[in-house]
Amino acid sequence: MTNTTADPGHIPAPEEVQAGVVKKVLGASFLGNFVEWFDYASYGYLATAIAVAFFPNRDPQAALMATFAVFAISFVVRPVGGIIWGLIGDRLGRRTALSWSILIMSGATTLIAFLPSYQSIGIWAPILLLLLRIVQGFSASGEYAGAAAFISEYSPPNKRGLYTSMVPASTATGLLAGSLMSAALYWLLSDAQMHSFGWRLPFLLAFPLGIVGLYIRLKLEDTPKFRELEAEQQVERTPIRDLFTFHRREVIIAFGVTCLNAVGFYLILSYMPTYLSEELGMEHAVSTLATSVSLITYIFLIFLMGRLSDIFGRKTALITASVLFILLTVPLFRMLDGMGFAMVILIQIAFGALLTINDGTLATFLTELFPTKVRFSGFAFSFNSANALFGGTAPFMATWLIGLSGSKLAPAWYLVAAAVVALIAMLMATETAGKPLKD
């Protein structure tokens, strides 16, 4: 940080923070978020193998729906987790919340690797799986919001979009790692080996990765914004009460615009391999590889979109994303059926590019929407509530809607509906780019 010898109590503004410190903040946030979402997403990519291990007595579609139901139920705890992590982050600090979240996620994920199958302990197997998924959901509810608040409060206003886009980029990198590892396992192992031990391997990596992420985070100071609140004794003791008393409009806007992120993220980047294999008949390894290629494009584009949001504004970017999803989702889904591998990859890349317009901007917009006292709580509650209702349920809803309607385009219309909600929310919002964070 800047030299503060003359004034030991000086807390630097984001513009004063040295580049080296910002790089450490970005690195710590990237690694921690990567670990969280690699752990969390591995479940989605290995859903079909997990279905056999924990729901063997059902027909394939029912077992898959049961597996996705467990995936969805783990999101139910996320609004509660958002309140609790918001309380920790707004009262005790961003760093404290982030350190505990990565520790809890790594522990729960490691335990999943050692769960007995249904054949070994019967109904207790899916019950234990559900409990550990709930713990994962609780942990994840603090990670995304905390990492975004941590970075944005260290960032100068003119580069906040670029720097905070590190959060969705690290999330996608965690998904990519999970996708590549899943593709390699499906490629190298037989079905019997996958159902026996193959699906457990990604979860075994959780503990060492989590310890590394925790160590790096503990080496950093909390953000200048939060330390300023502490120095002035302005830390809010009941942030959630303050949030619902004075910032209800912001919560509604944040919830609405996050609906597109929730449905789009989990349909395009998590559910899509299952859709391509189960609904369109592609091999598991091929469908997972197609999603991996689109994820690589997504990661590179996310930084560009974050930077463009600094130039053109958050509102412009988020409205553009909503309109493009409304216009292009159904045509792109329709094109997937019957296409070859190369064309499927191009369509996946197109979906990923559309999603980056939203995702590269959303985290920054949500941090700018709420004042420092309730920033963590406002972001965590609205973001996690939308993801609990529409994100975690997206794979289940897609499978259910296809079965109900008999149409493979049902997931596309579901995504269009989410885009309409996000568009309405952003039309209610004001521009936040280029301004100091609210205090």
Describe this structure in words.
Helix 1 runs parallel beside helix 9 (166-188), helix 4 (78-91) packs parallel to helix 7 and helix 15 (248-279) packs across helix 20 (394-405). It contains 21 helices and no strands. It is 78% helix and 0% strand. Mean pLDDT is 83; it is low at 1-8. The chain has helices at residues 19-45, 47-54, 60-73, 78-91, 94-113, 118-121, 124-152, 160-164, 166-188, 191-196, 201-204, 206-218, 224-231, 239-246, 248-279, 284-312, 314-336, 341-369, 375-391, 394-405, 410-427. The chain is an all-alpha fold. The chain has a single domain, classed as Growth Hormone, Chain: A (Up-down Bundle). It is globular.
Short description:
The protein contains 21 helices and no strands. The chain is mainly α and 439 residues long.
The H-level CATH homologous superfamily, spelled out, is MFS general substrate transporter like domains
Element order, helices and strands? HHHHHHHHHHHHHHHHHHHHH
Low-pLDDT residue intervals, each spanning 5 or more residues: 1-8
The main β sheet shows up as: none
Average the pLDDT over all residues and give the rounded result. Answer: 83
Q: Please report the number of helical segments.
A: 21
Structural class: mainly alpha
Number of extended strands = 0
Number of domains: 1
Helix content: over 70%
The general outline is globular
At the first level of CATH, the class is: Mainly Alpha
Based on CA atoms alone, the radius of gyration comes out at: 21 Å
Question: Per DSSP, what share of the residues sits in E-state strands of 2 or more residues?
Answer: under 5%
- Which topology does CATH recognise? Growth Hormone, Chain: A
**CATH architecture annotation name:** Up-down Bundle
End-to-end Cα distance: 22 Å
